[in-house]
Write a structure and sequence with these properties.
The protein has eight helices and eight strands. It is an alpha/beta fold and about 220 residues long.
Length: about 220
C-alpha cells in the first residue's frame, strides 16, 4: 500500500458514470472528490471571469485549454491543499498533456490506481439525453430515476435541470474529443501498470462493488 488514503483517477466516456460513482467512492474512502467539470460549472454559476470563459468551451462541447486546467489542478494538489489527504479525480486528466503534467506534479507512486469505466457509445447517448443535475450540489439524476419531488434535489432541494452541454451537437463533439484526446491516456496508464478496466453497465450498486474491489485489491 503506497498511501493510507487512495489516490485515484476515474476515466470513461462522457456518461460512463464517473461523476455518479466518484461521489460514492469519495464518501466510502473518506477522500476528496474533484470533478473539473463541476468546478468549472460552479465558477460559471458564480459569474467569475474564469468560470465564464470555461463555460464558452463547455457549452460547445470543447475542452477547456490545458494551461487553465493544469494550473487549477496543480493548486489543488499542492501540499496542504484540498487533495493532499487522498483523492478521486473525475474528468482530469483528459488529454495526454494533462496526464503527463499530473505525473510531474505528483511524486513517484503518487497515484494508486486509474480505473476506466467501460460503457458503449449507444448506452452513454441514452444516459446523457436523460441526465438531469442539481444546480446547487451537482447531484446527478436521470429522467428514469428522478428525485422524489421532481425536480428538486433530494439532498439540498436545489433545482434539478438539464446540463447546458447535454444537447446533441455538444454530446457528439465531446464523444469525438474523447476518442482523439482521452483514449491515448488509457494506454499511457496501462504502460505504467496503473490501469484497471471495469464494466460500467449494470445497476449503480454493482458498478460501485466492481470499483471498490479493484481499488481494494490495489491498495490493501
Ligand atoms: P464533465 O463535467 O467532466 O462532463 P463529461 O466529460 O461530459 O462527463 P459527464 O459528466 O458527462 O459523464 P459522467 O461519466 O460523469 O456521467 P454521470 O455520472 O453524470 O466536463 C464538462 C466539460 O468541462 C467538458 O466538456 C470540458 O469542456 C470541460 N472540462 C472538464 N474537465 C476538463 C479537463 N480536464 N480538460 C479540459 N476541459 C475539461 O452519468 C451520466 C448519466 O447516466 C446520469 O444521468 C446518471 O444518472 C446515469 N447513470 C450513471 N450510472 C448509471 C448506471 N450504472 N446505469 C444507468 N444510468 C446511469
Amino acid at each position: 500500500m503506497t498511501d493510507p488514503k487512495p489516490c485515484l483517477v476515474l476515466l470513461g466516456k462522457q456518461g460512463a458514470g464517473k461523476g455518479t460513482q466518484a461521489k460514492r467512492v469519495a464518501a466510502h474512502y473518506k477522500i476528496a472528490h474533484l470533478s473539473t467539470g463541476d468546478m468549472f460549472r460552479s465558477q460559471a454559476a458564480l459569474g467569475t471571469a474564469f468560470g465564464l470563459e470555461a463555460k464558452r468551451y463547455m457549452d460547445a462541447g470543447e475542452l477547456v485549454p490545458d494551461d487553465i486546467v493544469v494550473g487549477v489542478i496543480e493548486e489543488c494538489l499542492a501540499e496542504g491543499g484540498p487533495l493532499s489527504g487522498g483523492f478521486v479525480l473525475d474528468g482530469f486528466p483528459r488529454t495526454l498533456h494533462q496526464a503527463e503534467q499530473l505525473t510531474r506534479v505528483l511524486e513517484d507512486g503518487g497515484l494508486d490506481l486509474v480505473v476506466n469505466i467501460d460503457v458503449s457509445r449507444e448506452i452513454v447517448l441514452d444516459r446523457l439525453a436523460g441526465r438531469r443535475v442539481c444546480e446547487d450540489c451537482q447531484r446527478v439524476y436521470h429522467v428514469n430515476l428522478p428525485p422524489e419531488n421532481p425536480w428538486n434535489c433530494d439532498d439540498c432541494s436545489g433545482r434539478v435541470e438539464q446540463r447546458a452541454d447535454d444537447h446533441e451537437e455538444a454530446i457528439d463533439r465531446r464523444l469525438e474529443l474523447y476518442e482523439i484526446e482521452t483514449v491515448p491516456i488509457v494506454d499511457y496508464y496501462r504502460q505504467q501498470g496503473l490501469l484497471s478496466v471495469i464494466d460500467g453497465v449494470g445497476e449503480g450498486d454493482e458498478i460501485f462493488e466492481r470499483l471498490t474491489k479493484a481499488i481494494d485489491s490495489r491498495t490493501d
